[in-house]
Design brief:
With 60 residues, the protein is mainly alpha-helical. It is built from 3 helices and no strands. It has one domain. This is CbtB-domain containing protein.
């Protein structure tokens, strides 16, 4: 039985993920962080809140 370790997962990603895929993953994480950090403007928050309600997400 082989143990699944963090080191093994990192090695698997190094083999399976291309540099382009890695760049896109990092860019997605940075973009999400930017949105969460800098788009705290009340108008943006309200529009996101209204969108959640429009698609059926209950948040209260």
């Amino acid at each position: 039985m082989t143990t699944d370790t963090v080191h093994g997962r990192i090695e698997r990603v190094r083999i399976d993920v291309t540099p382009t895929q890695l760049t896109l993953m990092v860019a997605s994480i940075v973009a999400a962080g930017f949105v969460l950090l800098f788009l705290q403007d009340p108008m943006v928050h309200d529009s996101m809140h209204n969108f959640r309600h429009a698609v059926g997400v209950t948040c209260h």
